[in-house]
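step=encode ok
step=design start
structure_in=
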């Protein structure tokens, strides 16, 4: 069956810091930052149909909608049922038709960029303003970034390479997160089973936080920082000169002047910290403190039953409790009041 190509282009001036929003279910998307004040969205359709007339009929039904306003361009695919363009193609009743799309977006580099999708992969390069990317299973590659970045995924792998300071908020279930930046002005990362890799300097003005259930954390850090580790089953390997403090389930590792702070909270994920390979050298080493006295053994707690474990994990998934509280309950501790 032949393939017919159709193209739709949407263009609107939004200003240097205006908003561009894109909603696309399964399309692969490329975002490109450009100079100027105009946002452009180009959608290429590959339409598999019996005849040219069937392809034209399908194209009219799957064209993206655009809402244009003062400093705003919102573009979204038409929705019928719960599967977008694919559902429309099946509903036409004009022969065996199929539609696939790819999207190229260009927008001012300091624009407010927002994306929501399901399974399409996304590449974005060069943006410096507010950015928000939400997907279910599509992977994200974000390069040459700065500014504020918010990412939400389920099974998505997320790769971020910033060349300016960035404030990052990332949340996944099973996808891995890798983020490199010269400096993290603010850092909030939450994942269930995904691993987290971070490299760069941690700004001293913010309390940075990484939470996992079973995911590991790898840190390549420049500058002084204090790493607090919470988790009875969490192992910490710190290959930077440091001073260790705290108790068995709340350990602190102080590097250099300890000016920046990061909390790593996990049930069973481990953490490693090493000097940054990409950015500045770490702060001058701090002499280690004398070894602390051995911790007395912790009395065993009664095991948590299967039903109770399931209820705890459901509460964690629903956001009713955090990772630290779930870890404490699974270890046999009573709920906090």
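sequence_out=
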């Amino acid at each position: 069956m032949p393939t017919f190509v159709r193209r739709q282009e949407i263009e609107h001036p939004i200003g240097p810091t205006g908003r561009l929003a894109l909603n696309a279910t399964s399309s692969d998307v490329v975002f490109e930052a450009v100079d100027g004040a105009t946002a452009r969205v180009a959608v290429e359709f590959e339409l598999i149909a019996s005849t040219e007339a069937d392809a034209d009929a399908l194209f009219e039904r799957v064209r993206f909608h655009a809402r244009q306003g003062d400093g705003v361009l919102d573009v979204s695919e038409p929705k019928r049922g719960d599967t977008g363009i694919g559902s429309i193609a099946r509903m036409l009743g004009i022969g065996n038709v199929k539609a696939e799309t790819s999207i190229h977006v260009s927008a001012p580099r300091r624009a407010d960029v927002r994306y929501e999708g399901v399974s399409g992969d996304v590449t974005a390069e060069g943006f410096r303003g507010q950015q928000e990317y939400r997907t279910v299973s599509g992977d994200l590659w974000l390069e040459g970034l700065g500014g504020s970045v918010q990412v939400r995924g389920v099974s998505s792998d997320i790769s971020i390479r910033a060349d300016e300071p960035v404030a990052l908020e990332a949340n996944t279930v099973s996808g891995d997160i890798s983020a490199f930046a010269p400096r993290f002005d603010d850092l909030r990362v939450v994942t269930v089973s995904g691993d987290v890799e971070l490299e760069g300097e941690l700004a001293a003005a913010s309390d940075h936080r990484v939470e996992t259930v079973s995911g590991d954390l790898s840190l390549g850090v420049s500058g002084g920082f204090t790493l607090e580790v919470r988790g009875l089953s969490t192992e910490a390997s710190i290959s930077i000169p440091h001073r260790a403090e705290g108790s068995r389930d709340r350990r602190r590792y102080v590097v250099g002047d300890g000016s920046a702070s990061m909390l790593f909270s996990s049930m069973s994920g481990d953490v490693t910290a090493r000097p940054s390979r990409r950015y500045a050298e770490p702060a001058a080493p701090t002499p280690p403190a004398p070894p602390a006295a051995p911790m007395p053994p912790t009395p065993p707690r009664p095991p948590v039953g299967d039903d109770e474990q399931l209820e705890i994990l459901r509460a964690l998934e629903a956001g009713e409790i955090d990772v630290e509280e779930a870890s404490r309950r699974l270890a046999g501790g009573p709920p906090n009041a």
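step=design ok
step=annotate ok -> The helical segments are 52-62, 85-91, 306-317, 323-330.
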